[in-house]
Prior knowledge:
Chain B: One of its GO terms (molecular function) is metal ion binding. Chain B: Keywords: Heme, Iron, Membrane, Metal-binding, Transmembrane, Transmembrane helix. By secondary structure, chain A is of the alpha/beta class. Chain A has helices at about 90-100, 160-170, 190-195, 215, 225-235, 240-250, 265, 275-290; strands at about 30-35, 55-65, 75-85, 120, 125-130, 145, 155, 160. With about 160 residues, chain B is mostly helical. Chain B is built from five helices and no strands.
Amino acid sequence: MAGEKEPGTRSATGEEGGEGIATSGAAPSSDYDHAGKGGASPRQEKGTDGAGGIPSFDVTMRLRRYNPELDTEPHWENYTVTMYGTDRVLDALSKIKAEIDGTLTFRRSCAHGICGSDAMRVNGRNRLACKTLLKDLDISKPVVVEPIKGLPVEKDLVVDMEPFFAAYREVMPFLITRGAEPTRERVQSQPDRERFDDTTKCILCAACTSSCPVFWTDGQYFGPAAIVNAHRFIFDSRDQGSDLRLEILNDREGVWRCRTIFNCSEACPRGIQITKAIAEVKQALIARKL
Amino acid sequence: MSSSTDTQGTGAYAPALESPRSPYRRGKPTRSNWELHGWLFMRMSGVLLLVMVFGHLWVNMVAGEGINQVDWSFVAGKWSSPFWQTWDLIMLWLAQLHGTNGVRTIINDYAERDATRFWLKMALYTATLVVLVLGTLVIFTFDPCMDPASTLEVCRTGSAG
Ligand code: HEM
Ligand code: SF4
Ligand code: FES
């Protein structure tokens, strides 16, 4: 453990951050431990930060790492860092990248739950790293962070999103109208707008699609996110392409592949009721076809 | 901390990524209502099975003398009635098709290679066919007097010869 830190005042958890507590998750052959070198941290005594009295704690981050240029297989590495009560998983990753290993690779952009860049699997659940407070996790054990499942890993926590976006493009996520170009606003009543309000909230983070067991084994399945974004237009009173979209989702790899497992609804950081949206598309299809 | 890049510029490593964008293609769209009908069938046959299976269990296991009544003559008695013949026939076909479609879904879910998927399904369809043909045959050709020593009422008059 790094010399600058004071082991004596460290909280009971995370002591030495070593192999002893690194037991969760399926650990393949190689495990490495790192501890903060402490170059820039910690600024103050442990326990409280002088600035505002925010409690601090040591947390072990157990990250699934893969460098395509060096590794044949992904492996786990542990990093112990001192974090504060206001910090999120994303902050822990940034700290590790800044202070321990600059090669750590992950996506993030807005850091405020808007852009959908940083969906990852935290302690076995898909979440946005920027919306997951460390203090809400069990920090007495290492916090396990992996890339989202079902998409090819490019490096560390970065996956290839192309299959996800290919399915998204397939449902034509844009307004389709017939006839003349609009000369005035396309008016919509409030109840008509309300009809598809829930599915307008999607930020395309892929947390849902990559939490779906059907998608894990069948990469051709359109997946919840594509259906959510089709739903957003199918139930839009201004849109005239719903027949097309419904026909697309009537596919062998479309809505009928859904098994109402509810993983997507649980994973969605925007709280979209995805399983319900999928059921509504199924219903619309049955109503139209029979 | 290991550095992941070839800092010396000697080109000593070959990039493990074959191409910057691994080609991903979506399969051809299928234009039929097959999966829609399959989905509906699962739910409708499920509801019907609920009634038929529990009706079957009740009549065989609970009503009358209960479980002790089930023997050759009990079955023979039931199948001499067109009502129970029809009941059992419908139950056989519904359960078999429902189960087959369910297992087909599970095979689609779990088989990773196309060849595995194909052969598992072939085995499934073969088994389905055998059970359907055999079951239907038994329901219609069942002869309660197959046993020459039968003491069943239906057999006493005709079995003299
Ligand atoms: C008791 C009445 C029954 C009801 C109400 C019922 C209902 C259902 C429904 C609604 C599904 C579709 C699940 C989905 O799409 O996710 C299903 C699937 C299935 N059923 Fe039934 N079923 C019944 C009896 C049976 C019987 C007798 C068999 C066996 C022959 C069977 C075997 C299966 C299988 C293998 C599946 C696929 C499992 C899955 O999709 O995960 N079921 N059942
Ligand atoms: S539906 Fe929710 S989980 Fe799925 S991509 Fe959109 S925001 Fe993410
Ligand atoms: S970084 Fe933008 S959603 Fe998390």
